[in-house]
Design goal:
This protein has 126 residues and is mostly beta strands. 0% of the residues lie in helices and 50% in strands. Strands 2, 4, 5, 6, 9, 10 and 11 form a 7-stranded mixed beta sheet that branches. Strands 1-3-8-7 form a 4-stranded antiparallel beta sheet, with no helix packed on it.
Length: 126
């Protein structure tokens, strides 16, 4: 079992920055890949970013490329999402996700991940 807890959300003006954190506990050594997703009311949860076990490989949704950066500190069992140049359309609940084994599947799919955090609200005002 892996438990995930996000933090760092809040209210920020357009053009501002936030850094989200995702603290993992439990069987963290089994964590293979970590991802961030977001969801707004009435819409499906969508992929934002994904990072490999070692942090050497990262992937981003097109709408955040150049603005968001995913990173991880395995010693602290924490994954981060640095969000810069925020836009009102970035307003959403942001979720951290963990996959515990290697294998097939697409990292943009919710089913690729085994564990999810409860989410943290990010609100960007215009």
């Amino acid at each position: 079992q892996v438990q995930l807890v996000e933090s760092g959300g809040g209210l920020v003006q357009a053009g501002g920055s936030l850094r989200l954190s995702c603290a993992a506990s439990g069987r963290t050594r089994s964590t293979y890949a970590m991802g961030w997703f977001r969801q707004t009311p009435g819409k499906e949860r969508e992929f934002v970013a994904r990072i490999s076990r070692t942090g050497g490989m990262t992937y981003y949704a097109e709408f955040v490329k150049g603005r968001f950066t995913i990173s991880r500190d395995n010693a602290e069992n924490t994954v981060y999402l640095q969000m810069n140049s925020l836009k009102p359309e970035d307003t959403a609940v942001y979720y951290c996700a963990a996959r515990v084994i290697a294998g097939s599947g697409s990292y943009v799919d919710l089913a690729y991940y085994d564990y999810w955090g409860p989410g943290t609200q990010v609100t960007v005002s215009s």
